[in-house]
Amino acid sequence: MKVLLADNQGITRAGLMYICDGLTGVEYSQVEDKATLIEQLKIEPESAVILDYTLFDINDAAEMLILCQRFQRVQWLLFSEDLSLDFVRLLLASSPCFSVLLKESPLTEIREAVAFTVHHHRFICQRMAEMLLAPETKSEETVNLTRAETEILKDIALGMTTKEIAEKRFSSFHTVNTHRKNIFRKLGVNNLHEATKYAFRAGLVDSAEYYI
What we know:
Strand content: 5-15%
Order of helices and strands: EHEHEHEHEHHHHHHH
Helix content: 40-55%
Distance between the termini: 54 Å
Largest sheet: 5 strands, parallel
Structural class: alpha/beta
């Protein structure tokens, strides 16, 4: 079984390699970006992918579902510090190929999740399962965005692309894209339309500014 490690944190990759070394019949390699990941999946279409979605250059849930549809024999283990519940619910409901593991999980659970994934079985860590099963609250919680995230959310609501925002802020595309995913995660939204609605509700953009 081939495991592709799509995680840009060196310490996390080292830990995952250590775990994979303890599994029989498992080979692994690292991938740095989406383009490389796709090329590897063309070669190994039955791979298991351990992916830190929040740090990788995959834009949203829709793009994840496109990759899942394109590579239908791949098993995905989403291994991140934090994922929005709406994002997780959408992916889990769409395909059994998605597993979810939070980085706060204990080592025994991480080992179990990797083993499940390489054998093409679904795994959901205990903490995420508890969050998914908890009753939903109707009250809107205060969302704490950083100054940079607030400014980028306003630009998103005004229709600017990630590339345009990066040029405006003299930042890299990857940096702005990471901010964008963090904003979506904090707001609990999955697309630009929902993020824009929040920006209006929060008073970041008014109608006159929006229609200029």
